[in-house]
Amino acid sequence: xxxxxxxxxxxxxxxxxxxxxxxxxxxxxxxxxxxxxxxxxxxxxxxxxxxxxxxxxxxxxxxxxxxxxxxxxxxxxxxxxxxxxxxxxxxxxxxxxxxxxxxxxxxxxxxxxxxxxxxxxxxxxxxxxxxxxxxxxxxxxxxxxxxxxxxxxxxxxxxxxxxxxxxxxxxxxxxxxxxxxxxxxxxxxxxxxxxxxxxxxxxxxxxxxxxxxxxxxxxxxxxxxxxxxxxxxxxxxxxxxxxxxxxxxxxxxxxxxxxxxxxxxxxxxxxxxxxxxxxxxxxxxxxxxxxxxxxxxxxxxxxxxxxxxxxxxxxxxxxxxxxxxxxxxxxxxxxxxxxxxxxxxxxxxxxxxxxxxxxxxxxxxxxxxxxxxxxxxxxxxxxxxxxxxxxxxxxxxxxxxxxxxxxxxxxxxxxxxxxxxx
Length: 422
Description:
single chain, cytosine transmembrane transporter activity, membrane, transmembrane helix
């Protein structure tokens, strides 16, 4: 339960969520969108995508604010105590390992390109391996290293982005931005899948941070004013810099800002800082999934980081768009089940909430069906000969919502009938 000494203001929560958007993944989303759509369309996708993220965050965050509990405990009603811990831990592990691989790959490309300028040529897979293992080793030392990197990396990333933006909007690159024509043709829905997928996990586990909020309105203000402006701004920055420097490679963009050394170091430090969180969170998730003893945490962090490093070596960055689509398919259905239970069935009354022992099969089944159906367009796109399905990033959450709601009503009616015949 929430301790009144830990109560936080909406402003402080908004700063946390806004700060989470100021990162390389947000720039990567802008970089990805702008290669296949106009700047105005990319910004529209960013706004709509993050508005959907905020909608999920608000409903998820308010549950934890009401109950003063983190997401994994709140989800104990719809998935059961064991089911909740297992499902959320599996999703967290997959997301963290995937993001670790992507950012270690970005860091490896940046390192290889930076060294090449000084006539030191190493293959990108080797650079990604070195980057990933350095991140893994530093993650084992935990919060001390993370705190130091955060003090350096976040301000440096902001300074480089602002400098690059000013440079492009006041220089000759402005003509490139005005005359830009996208090479590809990404649909609005595909763009939404990429945008939602980039912060889907943050939306579903919003309660981990909002559990210390005193009022529901604090969650709404923090999410709306923390996520949307920062998210759209960072996607816009990533898109504009990509156009201005005429490259779809985010590492090449940074090497063009200021000097190659400053831009390269800024990118490396930013990915390093974020990957410490991914390795630590991924390690803890593995402990929960496999029910490993807590004293094995450092070993779990090492395993998580090593798996992420292997993904970086094989070039996971090349699959950024489908990975974001899979995350946007897998993760939101968790919220669909929780929203159906707390807000519709129990009408948002916290007194109706209670954890269920073991596994709640209806909740697990509802999430699984929604996630599988939502993932089908991505899976079909990788199998030759199968028809192309349109990407509908919200279909999973809707299906899981409906299955749980209908299943719950049917079970209640059956229980009532059995009671009448006793």
